[in-house]
Specification:
Pfam families: AFG1_ATPase (PF03969). Keywords: ATP-binding, Cell cycle, Cell division, Nucleotide-binding. This is Cell division protein ZapE. With about 350 residues, the protein is an alpha/beta fold. The chain has 13 helices and eight strands. It has a five-stranded parallel sheet with strand order 2-3-4-1-5, with helices on both faces. The longest helix is centred in the first third of the chain and has 31 residues. The protein starts with 14 loop residues before the first helix and ends with a helix.
């Protein structure tokens, strides 16, 4: 009997499910400020931890003040200070851990998602409906904040302006300072006013340090043979086995908001014939796919080329470089899990 394949799955996700799914991924279900361990050699991490605690407390206090003010006068009272906290740093320094900790400490209702998931949500709901639903929340947490094209710049700027004006606090992580968003991807100078307006809504906390996923650990395992992949598929109940080219074609036919549902419940993903992505569109879909697998802590093993070879040298020098490097970092961590 052949192994199950991801390409045979056609997941459906309703708009209500998209909103309900705006929570931290399973691997960050139980994190907290207390479980974040700043490196003693990186003082910015301890500082970012305290900034995160203070911001979460400000969200709590703002809600208490609003409830008190509303009970007296029947209206909400605006909170002073910037409504956003922006955690800036490299890969694997614990920014997502801090972001999820802020989310867990904040009062309901609240929402959490990656930047890509947020733009997919707006696309699915429509701008007005997304504003209406998210304006009811106390906190919006956005992981891996990035602006890849002019449309996203305008969309996110408008969305966050509406939400923060409505009293929503916003916490975000990124590898790019807010006033540098979009550099190298499109004519950022043409949208400088929008980018500056966006950055003015955030206080910035820097988080320095090496990628914890690679501290003292070996490089990613060498690719397996096709025979080894087939054996792993037989040994692991529920493992999926797909060819790289067929999987890339399947991802192109699915809206990226479905990628998480595509791999839900899969204990091990096996991909044969890995090679360099054919073009930028394929590569960016693979980044989203890697993020959804990492969210769910799903091990991956491959044959063909190493996982790091999915993105060409030209891609790694281009405007989406940070996205590709993040995907390589995460896929390497997942491939180590499969090799245990």
């Amino acid at each position: 009997m052949s192994a199950p394949r991801l390409v045979d799955r056609l997941p459906e996700v309703s708009t209500d499910e998209l909103v309900a799914a705006m929570v931290p991924p399973p691997m960050f279900d139980s994190v907290s400020f207390d479980s974040y361990l700043p490196s003693p050699t990186e003082p910015s991490q301890a500082t970012a931890l305290e900034r995160g605690r203070s911001f979460a407390e400000r969200v709590v206090q703002a809600e208490r003040a609003k409830s008190w003010w509303s009970s007296l006068f029947g209206v909400g009272k605006a909170e002073g200070g910037k409504p956003g906290l922006y955690l800036d740093g490299g890969f694997g320094v614990g920014k997502t851990h801090l972001l999820a900790s802020i989310w867990h400490a904040a009062p309901e209702p609240k929402s959490y998602g990656t930047f890509v998931e947020l733009t997919h949500l707006v696309g699915a709901l429509g701008f007005g409906e997304a504003v209406r639903r998210l304006s009811e929340h106390k906190l919006l947490a956005i992981d891996e904040f990035e602006l890849d094209d002019p449309g996203d710049t305008m969309l996110v700027t408008r969305l966050l302006a509406k939400l923060t004006d409505a009293g929503v606090h916003v916490a975000a992580t990124s590898n790019t300072l807010p006033d540098k968003l979009g550099e190298g991807r499109f004519a950022a100078d043409s949208f400088l006013r929008e980018i500056q307006a966006l950055s003015a809504r955030f206080d910035v906390a820097r988080v320095d340090g090496p990628d914890y996923r690679h501290r003292g650990l070996p490089e990613a395992p060498e690719p397996l043979t096709d025979e080894d992949l087939a054996l792993r598929a037989k040994e692991t109940e529920g493992a999926t086995l797909d060819s790289f080219d067929e999987l890339c074609g399947h991802l192109a036919r699915l809206h990226p908001s479905r990628y998480g549902r595509l791999v839900d419940g899969v204990p091990l993903v096996l991909i044969s014939g890995v090679r360099a992505a054919a073009d930028q569109d394929v590569a960016l879909r693979l980044v989203v796919f890697a993020d959804r697998m990492y969210d769910r802590n799903i091990p991956i093993a491959v044959s063909g080329s190493p996982l790091s070879a999915m993105f060409t040298e030209e891609m790694l020098r281009g405007g989406y470089r940070k996205k590709y490097l993040r995907a390589i970092s995460r896929l390497t961590a997942l491939s180590r899990m499969a090799n245990r």
